[in-house]
Design brief:
16 helices; Flavocytochrome C3, Chain A, domain 1; 19% strand; FAD/NAD(P)-binding domain; alpha+beta; 575 residues; 3 domains
Length: 575
Amino acid sequence: MTATASIDAWDEDYELVVLGAGAGGMTAALVSSIEGMRTLLIEKSDQIGGTTARSSGTVWIPNNPEQRRLGITGDAALARTYLDGLVGDRADPSLREAFLAAGPRMLEYLEQHADIRFRIYRHAPDYRQEFAGAEQGGRPLEPLPFDGRTLGKHFERVGWPIRELMLFSGMMVTRGEAAQLLRFAKSWASCVLGAQLVLRYAADRLRFRRGTRLVLGNALAARLYGKLLEREVPIWFEAKTTRLITDNGRVVGFVVERNGARVRVRARRGIVLAGGGFPANPALRERYLPKPVAQHTPAFEGCTGETLQLALDAGAALGPGGMDNALWFPSSIATRRDGSTVVYPHIVLDRPKPGLVAVNAAGRRFVDEAVSYHEFVRAMYLSHQRVSSIPAMLVCDRRFVWKYGLGMIRPMTPVLKPYVDSGYLHVARSVAGLARKIGVDPSGLAATVERHNEYAMTGVDAEFGKGGNAYDRGNGDPGHGPNPCLGPIAQPPFYAVAVVPTPLGTSLGLRTDARAAVCAETGQPIRGLYACGNDMHSVMGGEYPGAGAQLGPAMTFGYLAAKSAAGERDARPAG
């Protein structure tokens, strides 16, 4: 519930307060501090980074400064065409206009005022190549590596990546570095890189629980955190906000439980909600996500929607429900030795490679396996309406697993028995035998593999067009022909791993205007209340245009929220 209180009944007094320490929230807090406002960042857990720390850290920003440095111009108009076609009326067009205009400014601002820069992906095609305005690269940007040692004792506050995505249970590498390391037997440069990375990691483990050379989303989260520490922005960890306080329709403060005490905090310019949506809340998944409801998520465990409820209690409105209200990964599920659950996202390391099919209970394919993770899960749900497709089975042969890996199983893994014994990996000497083990129709799977092998020979997938567009091909095997995404499934034994839908984020969030101000049911902004990231209703209407299409808008609207708050003039007398 909200409350109206005397304006002199405060324990703490700030100008802008941010709830949530992911990329969007930390961007808002950093910009707020740079703009000269007394800023407080509140995080309910004991770590920073949220889902950002587990992500690739990529930001999708069309017409970005790195493109312009390379002489690439005119991308704003192309991106507008692309988003208009992809998103259409699923979201307020004023929001994507604000994103297209402010995204580049956000990057320029962070570079100028905080020396935060990104590196361009020249070849990273947009996910939906069938829409006009889709590009082959340039819009996604990756964080630069970050030295966690510079954080000193604060390094332990940086949330961990998914452990199964690290080497030696603690060493981070980028996707490009991983591909280079796999060539160690043929490349001296790969050997040198491997030696450098391992020596650095070994030195780190003498002092730290994991490697301090941070890349991907861990690097982005740590860099933003480091800048907040440099500016001495206070961060309250393990602090739970219980209610917002309003006065004459304006949010003026909140109550937070911290160190066993209830603290009333004034927020003169406003509060920014950046709690990461609700992918980790089973009850809200049951209420808002499609059936069968996802039971697992790779998102941060703290993304449970409390910040959304705070806003709803203050009179805010959710955006319109979408097709599925989530942004998806297909993930395989396993159990660690300590009993914890592994949710392993199948992003691009196996599905697009030649020699794999995804099948439903009929043993039939239902999708181009190389589509984006988001569209793959959507295809699972669509197929499930006709025949059981959840879980779906990724089927391949021994040659595939050795060369490309499969889920948690890395390439060139010599012994697969532990994965089979645990139930993660299914194996049989024949395709029909595998089908019986995984509970799919044997004749259907045999026919599917036979057709797929014919496609591998011709290089043309006559059913789903796998490898027929730039996005598919960019994630396939460039050294394999005639189609980098099609290869035979012929060398026994044959293997399968089950994948299920898992929300990496939610697209249903608080309705906002183009300034990131949270709106009531009337559409009017609630003064003093802002949102960004997945607490904000998806600017893309639940569509996923390209790599980084969550973090790009999250940071952009975090920036806009802080700039909007800085521009406001609180007419209330001080005191």
